Amino acid sequence: MHGLVFAAGRGTRLRPYTDGTPKPLLEVGGQPLLARCVRAVVDAGVEAITIVVGYRGGEIVDHFGDDFEGVSITYAHQREREGLAHAVLAAEAHVEGDVLAVNGDNVFDGDLSALVDRHRESDVDGTVLLDRAARNEAETTGLCDVAPDGTIREVESSLESPDAGHIAAGAQTHPPALFDACRAIERADSGEYELVDALQHLVDRGRRYVGVELDGWHLNVNTPADLERARQYVSDSAE
Question: What tens digit of pLDDT does each residue of 85-127 get?
Fold first, then answer.
């Protein structure tokens, strides 16, 4: 399993925090946000990691170097930042085999190894980490329609579903077919190539993805309020 971590964004919504520091290097509980994410990926048991960098990527490369706790790191440069599916393709030359893809602006309090373990079962092609949220909290992520046996039937940003409380929580595993799926999709209404569309492309073609519910909490850090919440959560967890 190869870890793929997305850390190319500019972090515009996090100003003024990002005026002097790249978003992935903002501290949460005394550690860079990205270090917490990479540690979760390492703890899940990956053999290698590729970090996709873009804005001020040189500072991220200088900070992390070529390994993290003994796991090798390579870097892919997303020159034009046109969405997460575009970021996947920027990293293609670095990745072999199955992928654990994680948004680098997420803070996880939970073990991602459950995703990897489930992925390795014979009847599963990929997994999606699930959390629960009200619909208005899920506008910027994928709402998941999940069958009783855990199979992901549909992922959509505006899904009308009786199980719309399930959202994709920033971590997924994929087969190598992910790269072809990212090439196959069209630009979304957002103007970007969305990873959620590549996932739906795979589901529509018979790949079985299953949801794995988060044991703990996660927070996608996009705004100053999110950053303060993450810092408070980590502080409370340490007490």
Answer: 999 999 999 999 999 999 998 888 878 999 999 999 999 999 9
Nearest to 84, CA basis, from 183, 5, 194 = 194
- The pLDDT value recorded for residue 53 is 94
Q: Can you tell me the distance from the alpha carbon of 189 to that of 12, in angstroms, rounded to the nearest whole number?
A: 20
Give residue 163's pLDDT band: very low, low, confident or very high (50, 70, 90): very low
Provide the pLDDT for residue 98.
96
The amino acid sitting at 81 is R
β-strand partners of 154:
145
Q: Which two tokens stand for residue 134?
A: 């009200």
What's the number of CA atoms in the CB half-sphere (13 Å) around residue 32?
Answer: 16
Bridge partners of residue 32, in order along the sequence? 27
Q: What structural domains and CATH numbers belong to the chain?
A: 2-238 (3.90.550.10)
Give the span between the Cα atoms of 103 and 197, in whole angstroms. 16
In the chain, the amino acid numbered 208 is R
| Tally of helices (H runs) and strands (E runs) in the chain | 7, 14
Cα–Cα distances in Å, from 34 out to 4, 6, 7, 9, 80?
12, 9, 8, 12, 21
Average pLDDT over residues 16-36: 88
